[in-house]
Design brief:
This protein is an alpha/beta fold. The chain contains 21 helices and 20 strands. About 40% of the residues lie in helices and about 20% in strands. Helix 4 runs parallel beside helix 6 and helix 14 runs parallel beside helix 16. The chain is globular and about 90 Å long. The relative contact order is 0.09.
Length: about 550
């Protein structure tokens, strides 16, 4: 369905957001189409549902499905027709009133075959389930590894084999796993459902290490699919299948019934302190935060727009002001916020400097030494209190220059990175704007193990901002051209700069990050509060917390 263009009477800032959100919705629809209408019809002709149809019937009616990694594989593998959403649908849905991780192969995309990104996406979904003690349902309908890319899927630590490793680790920790085979389940992929607590299989499906054609080629045996690995054979002869069902609907009903029987463990200690939920102030966050990052805003207003009752207990409010820290409640849960301030700040200086000089201007989005100190200390407090941390990231990076270096910015930044790295309470990150350079690390980027990492459509994710990177890359190209004896004229310089800038801007787009799983999901700004509340509910399933240690701590 074609969406209407945004109204033309909007302000430029509002129009930018309207266009971005419209594009996000349209791109989501493209991804949700999977392999296209013809492939969906082929699935229906086999009396099978598509992956998203299965999920819609599996979860509790009229409850949201928080899809994760929707844009996995976005604009990748174009030479073989693409791999929308990585050929699999993952996310958290409510089954019997309890959050479950759902991992469903999309058989409309290359028969559900595993591409390199598919394996990484399934592993990320399993890792989220493992860290948060989320029970898992696998809806299996896959032709196995995509053989032309087997060397990128099969061998490494975080490739296909890791799926089974995590299967076993979750089982050992008592995390429920239910699998329903609703189509093909071939080769190494056959181990995944069999390593689950419970295995359901529909009639007409196939479960085997090698299909009929490969068996014939390997050992000369001629056997049909049903005799080799059909549901009846596995239910009556091999004993592999626990429940045989006639079709998708019956299998999904069986999954729901079994899921409802599982015991539920104790919640996390911080979740036991959940209070009654109070509404947040009604506010359009796109009016507060500009799309292009040029508009200053007070991040306190962003925080209090999503917290219960609009409350924030701000920590060291007058010190290290380019990072705002504080405690609040979100959906009744206690949380701590670490957020980049985006206003221009007039900082008071220590006495004893140059005559008459008592203030300096600090730029919002930049981490200075005192803000790094404050954030590190606050993170220690949150760990001591056992309270989850939410990072609101809109960061340019750490301050550079003579004064900053002499104030010990590297030492103080290392302290903050240490605190983030060793945090034992759940950490969730929302990238609302820039996430550049070492600022990404300090604000709990992907490398630092966030339980969930969300991005707004305005997010920009790279080692440095677009203009700075384009100029740096252009300088490198020019130096190489001059070494080869070529001196470009002004027209060629402009063309080279435009090419470099276009490429870098593409890589800054949050879809580029989401396609490679650097973020877990792109979310609309005004969905942030509800999405965070449900993410906290998912985190609450793990009652265990490691001892907090930071090792050698720079002071």
């Amino acid at each position: 369905m074609t969406q209407a263009p945004p109204p033309t009477d909007l302000s430029p800032a509002a129009a930018a957001w309207a266009e971005a959100l419209e594009r996000l919705a349209a791109d989501r629809l493209r991804v949700h189409a999977g392999g296209g209408s013809k492939a969906q019809q082929r699935q229906h002709d086999k009396n099978r549902l598509t992956a998203r149809e299965r999920i819609a019937r599996l979860i509790d009616s009229e409850t949201p499905f928080d899809e994760l990694m929707t844009f996995a594989g976005w604009e990748m593998y174009a030479e073989v027709g693409g791999c929308p959403s990585g050929g699999t649908v993952t996310g958290i849905g409510q089954i019997g009133g309890r959050p479950w991780m759902v991992i469903a192969n999309d058989a409309t995309v290359k028969a559900g075959a595993f591409f390199p990104i598919t394996a990484k996406k399934v592993i990320r979904a399993q890792t989220i389930a493992l860290e948060n003690h989320l029970p898992v349902v696998y809806l299996v309908d896959s032709a196995g590894v995509y053989l032309p890319m087997q060397d990128e899927i099969f061998p490494d630590q975080d490739d296909f084999g890791r799926v089974f490793y995590l299967n076993a680790r979750m089982s050992a920790r008592g995390i429920p796993q239910i699998a329903a085979i609703m189509g093909n389940c071939v080769a190494g992929g056959a181990y995944l459902p069999v390593m689950c607590d419970t295995l359901i299989m529909t009639e007409g499906s196939g479960l085997y290490l090698a299909g009929p054609a490969l068996v014939r080629a390997a050992i000369g045996q001629v056997v049909d699919s049903e005799e080799l690995g059909g549901a009846s054979m596995h239910a009556a002869i091999a004993g592999t299948v626990d429940y045989k069902e006639p079709d998708d609907d019956a299998a999904l009903k069986r999954v729901r019934a079994l899921a409802d029987l599982y015991a539920q463990g104790d919640p996390a200690p911080w979740a036991r302190r959940r209070a009654e939920i109070r509404a947040a102030p009604e506010r359009d966050l796109t009016e507060l935060v500009g799309f292009d990052g040029s508009k200053p805003y007070d991040v306190r207003h962003l925080i209090t727009s999503i917290t219960d009752g609009g409350e924030l207990h701000e920590f060291k409010a007058e010190y290290g002001e380019t990072i705002v820290c504080g405690f609040a409640r979100l959906g009744g849960y206690p949380v701590g916020f670490v957020a980049n301030q985006r206003t221009v700040i007039k900082k008071k200086l220590k006495a004893g400097g140059e005559l008459g000089l008592r203030t300096r201007i600090e730029v919002g989005g930049v981490i200075y030494g005192d803000s790094a100190d404050k954030a590190a200390r606050f993170i220690l407090d949150a760990n001591q209190a056992g309270v989850p941390l939410i990072f609101l990231s809109d960061v340019t990076g750490f301050m550079v220059g003579r004064d900053s270096e002499q104030e010990g910015i590297i030492r103080r930044g290392a302290k903050l990175v240490n605190a983030v790295s060793n945090t034992v309470v759940p950490k969730i990150t929302v990238i609302t704007g820039g996430s550049f350079g070492a600022g990404n690390y300090a604000m709990n980027g992907k490398a630092f193990g966030p339980r969930f990492l969300f991005a707004w459509p305005s997010a920009k994710y790279a080692v440095m901002s677009g203009n700075a990177a384009a100029k740096t890359l252009l300088d490198i190209q020019l130096a190489a051209l001059k070494r080869s004896g070529h001196e470009p004229d002004d027209e060629e310089l402009m063309r080279l700069y435009a090419e470099v800038k276009t490429k870098y801007d593409t890589e800054l787009d949050p879809r580029y990050a989401a396609s490679r799983l650097w973020v877990d999901e792109i979310i609309e700004p005004n969905a942030t509060r509800e999405r965070l509340i449900r993410a906290l509910k998912a985190c609450a399933g793990n009652p265990h917390q490691e001892d907090f240690r930071v090792g050698v701590f720079q002071v």
